[in-house]
């Protein structure tokens, strides 16, 4: 095989849009096992975009034809937001590592352009297989998470966190399985009208709901229930009709859930599960008795001293211990502490303290 043929093969594989398209679709699966390798895939895809932009291939075929596309607007908005974070970090320079991390945020605004590119690809085989890149990882994560909940370990040996009552499955130490399934849950709902195998999809949606519950991720579970209530109100007649047409199937599903509920291990977990604890906390809520109160207070103090620009990206962990941000709270209070952490546990307060009013306005925009 001569050099010309080798170059042609390499070009066909690594420069073709379809190759990068499948790399893009692999990210939901890869990220479950390795955040590092998913970042490598993102980097490769960004280089693909930049390479084609340099050749003006994408700018002519995608962006010029779609100047008002919503995704392009969103990408531009993120780009402006990240520019501000980077410039603000230069102004409030603390260390080179965090400066580089703030610069690396630009990858997300570029990454958002990928759907604009790939939506133009006319590949029938790809469109038929598209759904499997969502269904297979979702199904695998559901099964493994449920197995981890009941057995104490998943198939890779990661243990169920009995202290925090969290199941992480393939994510290991990162307790984000519920959040991951939360997004996939709504993607599955969107796919419902486009797939033939509706009974299988309904079963997978219910299984995903059950897995999110078992994950112990409170916010995704709360948001899904609120969303389902809203959907029920909006589409009540359609849902009622579907239920009546499939009442035997739904009866079997409810029966299956009841059988699980009477299982000793499940019942014990249900009683001691953090959802019950959360309800009790809400009933007897006193913000001052939680560590969040001190995180929030410290973030707000930092913001008040740096209203316009904040203190810079990733600086809360540094600034919170500074004497100039000392609070006036009662230090003899049993739950008192200085409020220091890697972040203040609230997106808005984190942006306010680190990027000021300008950063917060850009974020809201």
What does this structure look like?
The chain has 20 helices and no strands. The chain has helices at 3-14, 17-33, 35-54, 57-63, 70-91, 96-104, 106-111, 114-118, 124-129, 132-151, 177-191, 198-215, 218-234, 236-245, 247-262, 264-272, 274-283, 291-305, 316-319, 347-364. The longest helix has 22 residues, at 70-91. Mean pLDDT is 79; it is low at 61-65.
Quick description:
Helix content is 70%, strand content 0%. The chain has 365 residues and is an all-alpha fold.
Helix and strand arrangement:
Elements (H helix, E strand, L loop, with lengths): L2 H12 L2 H17 L1 H20 L2 H7 L6 H22 L4 H9 L1 H6 L2 H5 L5 H6 L2 H20 L25 H15 L6 H18 L2 H17 L1 H10 L1 H16 L1 H9 L1 H10 L7 H15 L10 H4 L27 H18 L1
